[in-house]
Design brief:
This protein is an alpha/beta fold and 279 residues long. It has two domains: 166 residues, NAD(P)-binding Rossmann-like Domain (Rossmann fold), CATH 3.40.50.720; 105 residues, 6-phosphogluconate dehydrogenase C-terminal like domain (6-phosphogluconate dehydrogenase C-terminal fold), CATH 1.10.3660. Helix content is 52%, strand content 13%. It contains twelve helices and eight strands. An eight-stranded mixed sheet has the order 3-2-1-4-5-6-7-8, with helices on both faces. The longest helix has 29 residues.
């Protein structure tokens, strides 16, 4: 039976394990720094056994789904320990530092730099879901540096997950994810924080929150241990995105202060164009 090793048994790693078992018949071995996560993943049937870095040589696939600030350390260890025919993929949402760190590694060709553009606000093995990746994008970077046979295996996995492939440079990936993913999390975190600071009575938040508020602030429930490293690893791009966002917020505030209904309406109409992009 084909064997896959999942390192990091949270939402993404756990969901990938479920799908590799269901859709491709892989036997799943798991590694996690948390013994509790390993035990829960075993109980939930997400993995078939616990393993360690000394048992990677017979794996067809190793997926690294740890927080982004630990990926390089884990990736270097995996490349040193993996078999010659082992596909190594990561799931990090910041790619530049990762790709630079392994560029000169003698076994670089085993690695396919990947980012499944999917997720929820939940974390841990209990958050793992079937069908999480359906219809989503798998970003792949620097594919020319990967062994073509292993890259073909990666494509087969992506196809089985019903995902679309988007090939990008690490620079483009990190820039665009700062705007379409990382900034939305910053916005949600700070909206949640602002409301909590202003509304001291939690009952008011619960009673008056509309579906609009709930959907906008949903990401504020995301795990700090995951997102703090992402913001710092992609600091320059996140700061650029934040500067643009703050500029628009300040302009919008000025329009309200000036009671400028016409300009407010125009701003909202301009933002409505997003409907044509996100259908």
């Amino acid at each position: 039976m084909k064997k896959a090793v999942i390192i990091g048994l949270g939402l993404i790693g756990g969901s990938m394990a479920l799908e590799l078992k269901k859709r491709l018949g892989y036997y799943i071995a798991g590694i996690d720094v948390s013994a509790a996560n390993v035990q829960k993943a075993l109980e939930l049937g997400i993995i078939d056994e616990e393993t360690d870095y000394n048992h990677l040589t017979d794996a067809e696939v190793v997926l690294i789904a740890v927080p982004v600030n630990h990926i390089v350390e884990v990736l270097l260890k995996v490349l040193d320990k993996a078999g010659d025919n082992t596909l190594v993929m990561d799931a990090g949402s910041v790619k530049g530092h990762i790709c630079r760190s392994v560029a000169k590694h003698p076994r670089r060709e085993l690695f396919v730099a990947a980012h499944p553009m999917a997720g929820t606000e939940h974390s841990g093995p209990e958050a793992a879901l079937y069908d999480l990746f359906d219809g989503k994008v798998m970003a792949l970077c620097e594919v020319d540096d990967s062994n073509w046979q292993l890259l073909d295996r990666a494509f087969s996995i992506v196809k089985a997950l019903n995902m679309r492939v988007k090939m990008m440079t690490p620079t483009d990936h990190d820039l665009h994810t700062a705007y379409v993913s990382h900034l939305s999390h910053v916005s949600s975190f700070m909206l949640g924080k602002t409301v909590l600071e202003i509304e001291k009575d939690e009952a008011h938040i619960f009673d008056l929150a509309s579906t609009g508020f709930a959907s906008t602030v949903r990401l504020a429930k995301s795990d700090a241990q995951m997102w703090c490293p992402i913001f710092l690893e992609n600091r320059d791009n996140v700061l650029k995105a934040l500067n643009e966002y703050i500029k628009n917020l300040e302009a919008f505030r000025t329009l309200i202060e000036n009671n400028d209904a016409e300009a407010l309406t125009q701003n909202i109409h301009e933002a409505n164009y997003i409907r044509k992009i996100l259908k």
